[in-house]
Amino acid sequence: MRLNLQHFCIRSTDALDSWIEQQILALGQLRQIDEANIRLACHRDNSPAYHVRVHLVTPGPDVIAESTDHTIRAAVDKAIKQLENTIVGRVTQRLRTAKSNWPVRGRTVGNRNFSA
After folding, report:
1. What distance in Å separates the CA atoms of residue 32 and residue 53, rounded to the nearest whole number?
2. Which of 8, 25, 52, 72 keeps 20 to 30 A from 81, CA to CA?
3. CA–CA separation, 110 vs 68, rounded Å?
4. φ and ψ at 102, to 5 degrees?
């Protein structure tokens, strides 16, 4: 996985960067991530000041999340939770669709009877 981390009006620190990397690697257990593009910005004239945008390049549709908060860690946490919800929601939807396509007992499809 390739990780691109951009800082705008925020000082890059090893602690912050490694914490974000751990969060993204944890998401990699839920879905394959080929590339993660993360943009951290501070707009001092806005409230809340910190803005985070995460774009995960994955096989299939990409996953994107944006969040704002009063601290950078809180904004990153919100974005990570959005990504988790999107990834888990897609997996759940895929399972629901697969289950709905299974034949039901007692139902006849074509020449087949699916009763016990």
Report:
1. 19
2. 8
3. 54
4. -75, 145
How is domain 2-94 classified at the architecture level of CATH?
Answer: 2-Layer Sandwich (3.30)
Locate the domains of the chain by residue range.
Answer: 2-94
Residue-wise pLDDT for 33-86, tens only, equals 999 999 999 999 988 999 999 999 999 899 999 999 999 999 999 999 999 999
CA-to-CA distance for 77 and 72, rounded, in angstroms? 9
CA 11 to chain CA centroid, Å, is: 25
> What is the C-alpha to C-alpha distance for residues 116 and 106, in angstroms, rounded to an integer?
7
